[in-house]
Amino acid sequence: MSRHLKQSSRRRFLVGATGVMGAAGVVGVATPFVCSLAPNEKAKQVRAPIKVDVSKIEVGAMVTVAWNGLPIWILKRDKQSLLSLKKHEALLADPDSIDSIQPKNTKNTFRSVRSDIAVYIGLCTHLGCTPKYRPELSPIDLGENWHGGFFCPCHGSKFDLAGRVYKNVPAPTNLEIPPYRFIDNDLLEIGYREESEGV
Ligand code: FES
Question: Transmembrane stretches, by residue range (predicted)?
Fold first, then answer.
């Protein structure tokens, strides 16, 4: 079996595993009793940062957690995926994330604080549908130049593994990135903001 096919098969397997570890990986989602709180306290609780242990996420897999009422995707990318990001930049609408929304510390080629871990708000920037994680290489429906990414079934928008939107699709900008930081090598804190953070 060629290296390409092996990698493609592995990625297909990991699509099946997507989401399985989501709940187990969350260290401290503070949601109980939210219903009994006053509205501004409730809003604070929902916006409160959450911690996620990323050490259990397999390379190539993606998990979904909830923060601020939003689905947050956490994807562990392999080296091959990171290398592929340069290959299709001419096909992207905003390859340098000039017009897209992300924290300052993720405005780089990989759109992430750490290259292997990507964090996105899992909503299409067109009308808010949930795109599907499509990590396969060159599947028939997405074409030869597809190196993995996200496909929105509502109106066909496509995003690469850095959440960057392709040209000529309805979504106007790249997938949004929530504020986050690493507390240590394994622990991600989503919702953390520096005083000066603009997002
Ligand atoms: S909502 Fe995703 S393409 Fe329209």
Answer: 12-34
For residue 32, what pLDDT band results from cuts at 50, 70 and 90? very low
- Do 170 and 126 touch, CB atoms closer than 8 A? yes
Contacts of 55-59 with C-beta under 8 Å, sequence gap 24+, read 55/185, 55/186, 56/21, 56/24, 56/25, 57/21, 57/25, 58/14, 58/17, 59/116
* Domain definitions of the chain by residue range: 3-190
Q: Closest Cα to residue 118, out of 55, 173, 75, 155?
A: 75
Instruction: State whether residue 91 is helix, strand or coil.
Output: helix
Give the mean model confidence (pLDDT) for residues 111-122.
97
Residue nearest atom 3 of ligand 1, based on CA coordinates: 155
Pocket-testing residue among 120, 123, 126, ligand 1, by greatest number of atoms within 8 A of Cβ: 126
Compute the distance between CA of residue 102 and CA of residue 120 in angstroms, rounded to an integer. 9
Residue 91 burial by Cβ neighbours in a 10 Å radius (0-12, 13-18, 19+) = middle
Average pLDDT, the chain: 84
Q: Output the CA 153–ligand 1 centroid distance in Å.
A: 7
What residue owns the CA closest to ligand 1's atom 1?
127
Cβ atoms of residues 165 and 158 within 8 Å: yes
CATH architecture, domain defined by 3-190: 3-layer Sandwich (2.102)
Atom of ligand 1 nearest to the CA of 124: 2
